[in-house]
Design a protein that fits this description.
By secondary structure, this protein is an alpha/beta fold. Helix content is about 45%, strand content about 10%. It binds pyridoxal-5'-phosphate.
Length: about 500
């Protein structure tokens, strides 16, 4: 409703705008104050959520106060509360407190960071963030790079650059319609390679089969000897390998591939070396973790997502590409850049020449504000806290008879299984009985435990598949999580497991 009462499309008057703003800030502050006590998962049926938004497209404008009422009454209560200290799903940053304020200001000034002229300060803030991220993880600071919507687009940007740089695949001209090409292949660990790499192969029209799965070691890291054998064999077949993707903090178990060895293989064979550190690359900023990342500094490109383990709210991914000329050659639509020249002066620097987006929002502001707010030392403390929580959980798992560890605790993602003691003993003994039914039972049990705890609102976690078996998966990616939260959730998982096992066991007729 217009404040002047004349036109429904007039601006809000300043006083009314301030009132709405103060109310919004109160909503945000109340939210943070009450986040611990909120049920993590929506306590309404999917039908209720659909019904809550069942309304016609408004013909007439509405009163902004009523719109904020609707946000308070319908949007916030029907959310999954990812900022909760007991949210362990997917890999989601828990939301830094300055970010909503920064986002509001970014939306107000509304710079288009596609170009320097529409966004002088926006461009420089982003450039500074890219440099700071590189510096924080020990990557060359004169790197190219940019912020993206997330890890998938960061991987896309990196792999398209690698494809352009290391093969004759010239998409600016004939593209796929060009004549004879070899099959361009890329390599990632079989267990932990992230699905986004497959999506990127698809987006680049290489076909999903171009992603070759390299066998893994016991600890879920890439077996580099196997990688070398695969590269040989594929070349003999006439394929053209162009890239190896190493994981720095993998999706199920936080594994870090032997990046230094992969770097050597790539250097010897002139392959693009990409590190998918969407989840875990930022761990390299902690001095006592740094050695695990040896070799990452040699990568041609690195993905790291501030909207994951830097706790920045969506959306904020990032990619670093060592040689910014390659980014320019890949994405520039200007003939001058195709000749290999990049901007020399600040005002020639247009991000649309260095990445897939043309119009771009000012996502850097929330990252810049968060990096300044915590500082490196503050962030290091938060990262250590996440890792300590994963180590604590591992200790609880190993000291409980009905849980089984499936990994060493690496960074902040930790998977494990509920396996009642007697079933565990049967599985450990030589198989005297067919075990398939037992495995199915355990898979169903682990899924049911997860579903029940999630539905209760106490915590959000997911299941995953570890070596063909269903496991509980926790991504402890909240700076609010404490070891007490871990204990509370672990106790609930144990209690739910014992109860469901007792309820189900008789009718399950297991051979144990
Ligand atoms: C290792 C890894 N790479 C890439 C991605 C994709 O990131 P996004 O979901 O931000 O696109 C993820 C997402 O979890 C990931 O864990």
């Amino acid at each position: 409703m217009a404040s002047d009462g004349e036109s429904p499309i007039a601006e809000l008057d300043s006083d009314e705008f301030r009132e709405l703003g103060y109310r919004t800030v109160d909503l945000i502050a109340d939210y943070y104050e009450t986040i611990e006590g909120r049920p993590v998962y929506v306590q309404a049926s999917p039908e209720d959520v659909v019904a809550a938004f069942e309304e016609p497209l408004p013909e007439e404008g509405e009163d902004p106060e009523a719109i904020l009422d609707a946000v308070e009454e319908r949007v916030v209560p029907y959310a999954t509360h990812n900022p909760s200290p007991r949210y362990f799903g997917f890999v989601m940053g828990s939301g830094t407190p300055l970010a909503p304020l920064a986002d509001a200001i970014a939306a107000t000034v509304n710079m288009n960071t596609g170009g320097w002229h529409p966004a002088p300060s926006g461009t420089e803030v982003e450039r500074r963030c890219v440099r700071w991220l590189a510096e924080a993880i020990g990557y060359p600071t004169d790197t190219g790079g940019l912020l993206t919507s997330g890890g998938t687009m960061a991987n896309f940007t990196a792999l398209m650059s690698g494809l352009r740089d290391r093969t004759g695949y010239e998409t600016t001209g004939a593209g796929l319609q060009g004549d004879d090409r070899p099959r361009y292949t890329l390599y990632v660990a079989d267990h932990e390679g992230h699905s986004s790499v497959v999506r990127v192969a698809d987006m680049l029209n290489l076909g999903r089969d171009a992603v070759q799965r390299v066998p893994s070691n016991e600890d879920f890291t890439m077996d580099v000897d196997a990688l070398e054998r695969m590269l040989e064999a594929d070349e003999d077949e006439g394929d053209q390998p162009f890239c190896v993707v190493g994981q720095a903090g993998s999706i199920n178990v936080s594994a870090i591939d032997p990046l230094d060895r992969i770097a050597d293989v790539c250097a010897e064979r002139d392959l693009w070396f990409h590190v998918d550190g969407a989840c875990g690359a930022v761990g390299a900023m902690v001095p006592e973790f740094e050695s695990r990342y040896a070799g990452m500094e040699q990568a041609d490109s690195v993905t790291l997502d501030p909207h994951k383990w830097l706790f920045v709210p969506y959306e904020c991914g990032a990619v670093l590409v060592r040689d910014r000329d390659v980014l320019a050659k890949t994405f520039s639509m200007h003939a001058s850049y195709l000749r290999g020249s990049v901007a020399e002066t600040p005002e020639e620097f247009d991000y649309y020449e260095f990445g897939p987006q043309i119009s771009r929002g000012f996502r850097a502001l929330k990252l810049w504000a968060s990096l300044k707010h915590y500082g490196l030392e503050g962030y290091r403390e938060l990262l250590r806290k996440s890792v300590d929580c994963a180590v604590h959980l591992d200790g609880l798992v190993r000291s409980h008879d009905d849980f089984v560890a499936v990994q060493e605790p690496n960074l902040f993602i930790y998977s494990f299984r509920y396996v009642p003691t007697d079933i565990g003993e049967t599985l450990a003994a030589p198989p005297a009985v067919p075990l398939e039914r037992v495995h199915e039972y355990l898979d169903e049990l682990n899924q049911a435990i997860t579903d029940e705890v999630v539905q209760s609102g106490l915590a959000f976690l997911t299941t995953t598949t570890i070596r063909q078996r269903r496991a509980l998966r926790t991504s402890i990616c909240s700076h609010r999580t404490t070891e007490e939260d871990i204990e509370t959730v672990f106790d609930a998982l144990a209690e739910t497991g014992a109860r469901l096992d007792e309820e189900w066991r008789e009718s399950a007729s297991l051979p144990v």
